[in-house]
Amino acid sequence: MDLETLLQKNDFDKQEICFLLSLQGEQAKKLLDKSLEMKLKYLDNKVHLRGLIEYSNICEKNCLYCGLRTHNAKPVRYTMTDEEVFACAELAMQMNYGSVALQCGERSDKAFTDKITHLVEKIKKVSDGKLGITLSCGEQTKEVYTQWFNAGAHRYLLRIESSNEDLYYKIHPKNNMHSFFRRLECIDTLQNIGYQTGTGVMIGLPFQTVEDLAEDILFFKKKDVAMVGMGPFIPHSDTPLWQYSEIIPNKKDRMLLTLKMIAVLRIMMPEINMVSATANQTLDPLGREKAIMAGANVIMPNLTPNKYREEYLIYPDKACVGDKPEECYHCLDLRMHSIDHEILYSEWGDSKAFLKKNAIKQ
Ligand code: SAM
Ligand code: SF4
Fold first, then answer.
1. Which of 109, 170, 207, 231 lies 20 to 30 Å from 161, alpha-carbon distance?
2. 226-251: per-residue pLDDT in tens?
3. What predicted TM-score, i.e. pTM, was given to this entire model?
């Protein structure tokens, strides 16, 4: 396959994606250069922020990769108080972040789902409607998703984790609580309700092949999602997948593979929002900047009170755990300037792809 000819296109089939994901050295750089060119053309050098609130580490599920899984007895389980959540929202306002993302372990009881509704309503109120709200609170019923949407949440992030059903069940227990088809259904439901819906996968999982990753990209395209959040898998010693740490790609390869995934997707879906995951910085001190240069356009600075951060270790060595929110503010601004990118403050930073599609529908 001739790389130069391939990079003239903006849509690829499975075989072509596999080829692009296998590039190394100078050839990989050509792919990354092309995706940066596409991003600058369609989205300019602008970066959107989502102030991340890690609301609770209580989780009913048992995903085999995640430090928050219910069978991991190590984390001290917490749920932030309402006041703490509103204080985070106020901090986001003070720092002109424009939007917040509320993320947590999965619970389905009514006390929890009603609480999220209340928090969303109140964040809207205290910010006078100025803060955009993304939720990432796992799989819920259509009624619950609708309730949260009506309360004011407008974006939802639910990673499919892998679009290959077999691989999905290698990284999740196969039981009622962890159903591949329910996950798929939830993504459809979110889109039908009207959320800007985001999904994504972990990269460098045990048993994952380049073909699986190519299918993941084709899945995002087929679903026509508004946002994608993908990042490297980082093994956690208190989880079952730790035993496969030796068979996954090394840190450098996982990082490069992540960058190539972002790059290919940016070329194929030039106007979606794509997050540069914090996990990138765990693998490489400049990982978040590299992901932005590969085509990502969203960063999620952490607003969670420091006392809780050590307990929200989905994976080990999370970056910025000890940083104060005000430090993140200056650090991110400098980091983005160092790569000639500019943070857009005080904006919701909606997905251009989503806005266009909806304008056409109306
Ligand atoms: N509980 C919600 C859910 O699962 O959708 C939201 C929170 S969950 C911690 C957010 C994401 O963390 C997951 O979708 C997963 O992809 C990612 N994650 C969990 N464990 C990870 C690990 N060991 N390495 C990299 N990412 C991980
Ligand atoms: Fe819970 Fe989400 Fe972690 Fe799975 S990935 S154990 S649902 S927090």
1. 109
2. 999 999 999 999 999 999 999 999 99
3. 0.97
Distance 66 CA to ligand 1 centre (A): 6
Return the beta strands (E) in the chain as ranges. Answer: 46-49, 51-56, 99-104, 132-136, 155-157, 196-199, 202-203, 227-232, 273-276, 298-299, 342-343
**Angle of the 287-294 helix axis to the 325-338 helix axis, nearest 10:** 50
Check if the beta carbon of residue 286 is closer than 8 Å to that of residue 276. no
Ligand nearest to the CA of 258: 1
Q: Could you tell me the pLDDT band of residue 116, with boundaries at 50, 70 and 90?
A: very high
Q: Is the CB of 138 under 6 A from ligand 1?
A: yes
Q: Mapping DSSP to helix (H, G, I), strand (E, B) and coil, where does residue 238 land?
A: coil
DSSP assignment, residue 79? B
Pocket of ligand 2 (CB under 6 A): 59, 61, 63, 66, 68-69, 105-106, 138, 314
Domain positions in the chain are 12-357
Instruction: Give 69 Cα–ligand 2 centroid separation in angstroms.
Output: 6
Domain 12-357 homologous superfamily, CATH: Aldolase class I (3.20.20.70)
- From the CA of 60, which ligand is nearest? 2
Q: Is 220 in the pocket of ligand 1 (CB under 6 A)?
A: no
Looking at the CA of 158, which ligand is closest? 1
Kindly report, residue by residue over 320-352, the tens digit of the pLDDT: 877 877 777 788 889 999 999 999 999 999 999
Does 46 have pLDDT greater than 90? yes
pLDDT at 255: 98
Identify the pLDDT of residue 362: 56
| pLDDT given for residue 190 in this prediction | 98
Give the residue among 346, 335, 354 at the shortest CA–CA distance from 293: 335
